[in-house]
Amino acid sequence: MFEGEYSVSLDDKGRVSIPAPYREQLRRRYDDLRVVVCRDYDGCVSLYPPAEWERSVLPEVYGRPINDQWRRAFESFVVGSAVTCTPDKQGRIAISATLRQHANLSKKVIFTGGVGHFQLWDVALRDAKLQRDLEILRAPQPAPVA
Amino acid sequence: MFEGEYSVSLDDKGRVSIPAPYREQLRRRYDDLRVVVCRDYDGCVSLYPPAEWERSVLPEVYGRPINDQWRRAFESFVVGSAVTCTPDKQGRIAISATLRQHANLSKKVIFTGGVGHFQLWDVALRDAKLQRDLEILRAPQPAPVA
DNA sequence: CCTTTATTCCCCACTATTCCCCACCAACCG
DNA sequence: CGGTTGGTGGGGAATAGTGGGGAATAAAGG
């Protein structure tokens, strides 16, 4: 569990500081500061501890036949963009121009927590996403959990 | 059960004192002064004892399929913003700028009690919420719980 | 194949923020 | 009227975030 949201800045060299609480989690829980950085189809960049990547992302691919349409798209779009990064001494990683472009990242960016991974968003896109989330959450309750 | 409403102030550093009765409840009933602070889609900030968070909030997420729309929105909106805070020696916690902005919190804020959690409101938004509550409560009764 | 140019990576230094602690004030209770 | 408890404000130390310089590496061109 990566907790909280953090606003950080992307410098001229394309680097971002991974928020200290996330680094703490990477160190304590995974004993590995590296992260797998990849394209996400929500329009952001997703970051996984390598252990989580292998545990929960790769099986999504290998669990399907090699001619499965969804698998081929996922493999191409997500896995195809994945790079394992090691943070520098200040806890930063560089985001490639390709990924920056994909997620429309400019100077002000936002990290958002999640279970087993976290994400990197452009401020405006994140706001739009929250707005859509709100509409879904405020709509009449769905059927209770079975 | 967290009882009562309390008016407190948010200082320049974004800190609020958790009302003493709530702290007393956290200590006696949960033996843990920490609270999970998160965005709430009613427009306020919700605070849960960690035990309650795991008992009643997280199952709402994990009880649903990962591609469920409501689950994805809830995970992004609520869980994505959650941070576990430990009160300082004076019983205060810091509310991040993001959460303050979300709930429109200024200097005067209100804590409201609840079952298993409590909330932090802006005065005006709280008044509006009470008004809406009234309308719901005065409307024709729904069918009894099965 | 060597030279030149561009890029990446690493490290240092500055600034801003956070956290922790101490002190004051006000209200309530004995 | 004094003591105790809860709320509020502020100072100082530690930590995190940011920007930039320089070395090493890789790429391109002669």
Describe what this molecule looks like in 3D.
Two copies of one chain form a homodimer. Chain A is α+β, with helices and mostly antiparallel strands and 146 residues long. Chain A has a single domain, classed as Transcriptional regulator MraZ domain (Chemotaxis protein chec, 3-Layer(aba) Sandwich). Helix content of chain A is 38%, strand content 26%. The first copy, chain A, has five helices and eight strands, in the order ββαββααββαββα. Chain A has helices at residues 20-30, 50-62, 69-77, 97-102, 123-138; strands spanning 2-9, 15-17, 35-39, 45-48, 83-85, 92-94, 108-114, 118-122. A six-stranded antiparallel β-sheet of chain A has the order 1-7-8-4-3-5. A two-stranded antiparallel sheet of chain A has the order 2-6. The two termini of chain A are 25 Å apart. The model of chain A has no long low-confidence stretch (mean pLDDT 92). At the A-B interface, β1, β7 and α5 of A face α2 and α3 of B.
Can you identify the CATH superfamily of chain A? Transcriptional regulator MraZ domain
The percent range for helix content of chain A is 25-40%
Rg measurement of chain A, Å: 16 Å
What is the count of β-strands of chain A?
A: 8
Distance between the first and last residues' Cα of chain A: 25 Å
Order of helices and strands of chain A: EEHEEHHEEHEEH
Count every helix of chain A, treating DSSP H or I runs of 4 or more residues as helices.
Answer: 5
- What's the CATH C level of chain A? Alpha Beta
Parts with pLDDT < 50 across at least 5 consecutive residues of chain A: none
Structural class of chain A: alpha+beta
How many domain regions of chain A?
A: 1
In quaternary terms, these chains amount to homodimer
